């Protein structure tokens, strides 16, 4: 699934290509992609004549501003947007086409067919009338008001593994499997460590590494692990810089130890067993016995 860096690159490329274009008509060939309104003919009719004024991003969602509406688009696993001349042949699995008055068309292609679109009036009440996933998002990890203290407050009462907590979009928006693995490695934190065991100092380091990894990935155009391309059809380059993700069995770039692949929070997870020490298991304590605090293992 495209994560924040990939969606941000899609946003930037589309903003350069389609802002200011007027929608002449819309074709919906796979109705289930359109969630709101349920009537796809109404979806198409409401967009006809609208002008795309801006393209924004929130977490992994694209927010295409077409006053008086916002088109909320989630790419899910393999959704792609491409701008093309009307005369160009279409690629297979093109499910929604926005025809513009200038003879070009924005084509939405989705092999897996998991992507979604919601057309929401801009004045609709928040959060009731907006997609639930969008309304529940945590802070943007690159915003100034997302601080190390904020991250610590969001995780320190959670007993789940830190990997699971960071994948939870209500904790922080836009992180997925790739960049959680990369940030945890850079911070020297094992993905199985309970979030409640992360100290304030570790949270500060983790916060810095989340931001650093995301910024570098954005600058590199995102990570093209499978099918990701931006609106120009260009692949990202950050997959060449990944430290642990997708490198099971390869030597750690820091210490040379073989990268391991685990299963954490139901997701394939990559870790260096030397740079990211596995948390120690706490032993059961008999009632009334004194408790000796041994910590949770170095990280």
TrEMBL record:
Q: What is this protein called?
A: Formamidopyrimidine-DNA glycosylase
Q: Which cofactor does it need?
A: Zn(2+)
Q: Residue limits of the Formamidopyrimidine-DNA glycosylase catalytic domain?
A: 2-115
* Cofactor annotation comment: Binds 1 zinc ion per subunit.
Keywords from the named record: DNA damage, DNA repair, DNA-binding, Glycosidase, Hydrolase, Lyase, Metal-binding, Multifunctional enzyme, Zinc, Zinc-finger
For this protein, what reaction is catalysed? 2'-deoxyribonucleotide-(2'-deoxyribose 5'-phosphate)-2'-deoxyribonucleotide-DNA = a 3'-end 2'-deoxyribonucleotide-(2,3-dehydro-2,3-deoxyribose 5'-phosphate)-DNA + a 5'-end 5'-phospho-2'-deoxyribonucleoside-DNA + H(+); Hydrolysis of DNA containing ring-opened 7-methylguanine residues, releasing 2,6-diamino-4-hydroxy-5-(N-methyl)formamidopyrimidine
| Documented EC number(s) | 3.2.2.23, 4.2.99.18
Record-annotated residues binding DNA? 93, 112, 158
Family statement = Belongs to the FPG family.
- Matches recorded under InterPro entries: FPG_cat, FPG_Glyclase, FPG_N, H2TH_FPG, Ribosomal_uS13-like_H2TH, Znf_DNA_glyclase/AP_lyase, Znf_FPG/IleRS
Q: What residues make up the catalytic site?
A: 2 (schiff-base intermediate with dna), 3 (proton donor), 60 (proton donor), 267 (proton donor)
Pfam families named in the record: Fapy_DNA_glyco (PF01149), H2TH (PF06831), zf-FPG_IleRS (PF06827)
Q: Where is the FPG-type domain?
A: 243-277
How is this protein organized at the quaternary level?
Monomer.
GO MF term (any one):
oxidized purine nucleobase lesion DNA N-glycosylase activity
Instruction: Explain the purpose of this protein.
Output: Involved in base excision repair of DNA damaged by oxidation or by mutagenic agents. Acts as DNA glycosylase that recognizes and removes damaged bases. Has a preference for oxidized purines, such as 7,8-dihydro-8-oxoguanine (8-oxoG). Has AP (apurinic/apyrimidinic) lyase activity and introduces nicks in the DNA strand. Cleaves the DNA backbone by beta-delta elimination to generate a single-strand break at the site of the removed base with both 3'- and 5'-phosphates.
The protein's superkingdom reads Bacteria
